Amino acid sequence: MNIKTQLAAAALLLVMAGSAFAGTPRVDARQDRQWQRIEQGVASGALTGPEATRLAARQQHIANAEARAKADGVVTARERVRLQGKQNRASVAIARQKHDRQHRHW
Questions:
Q1: Is residue 73 pLDDT above 80, yes or no?
Q2: Which domain holds residue 22?
Q3: CA 35, 39, 44, 50 torsion: positive or negative?
Q4: Which of 23, 59, 95, 104 is most deeply packed, by most CB within 10 A?
Q5: φ and ψ at 40, to 5 degrees?
């Protein structure tokens, strides 16, 4: 496994482990879907290494924000809206990077 794959796998495990205690099932499900989109982009060559690394870091930032929101045991409506906003922006970034005509060359 290369370092990017290990980073993505570790981050995915952290997100999934945190979701076991989650009060944010929609946020967790969306995080999972966005990770899958990144992984699919890497597998298809639609994402270059640097693009995938940036997108993975962004997903990790969202996971960290979610963990901070859950730290007190309650995710407020305001925190949930902020998380969803971060996810919306990350989703747009994933779509743009996957379709920007930059491809990994085999």
A1: yes
A2: 3-98
A3: positive
A4: 59
A5: -65, -40
Total number of domains in the chain: 1
- CA dist 24 to 2, 16, 31, 72, 73, Å? 31, 12, 11, 13, 11
By the 8 A CB rule, do 66 and 18 touch?
yes
Residue 106 lies in a domain: no
Question: What are 17-20's contacts with CB under 8 Å, separation 24+?
Answer: 18/63, 18/66, 18/67, 18/70
| 104, part of any domain | no
Q: What pLDDT was estimated at residue 5?
A: 73
Average pLDDT of every residue of the chain: 87
In a domain, 103, yes or no: no
Is the predicted pLDDT of residue 55 greater than 80, yes or no?
yes
The verdict on residue 60 lying in a domain is yes
**pLDDT range class, residue 24, cuts 50, 70, 90:** confident
**Which residue from 17, 47, 12, 8 is spatially nearest to 31, judged by alpha carbons?**
12
Q: pTM, whole model, 2 decimals?
A: 0.75
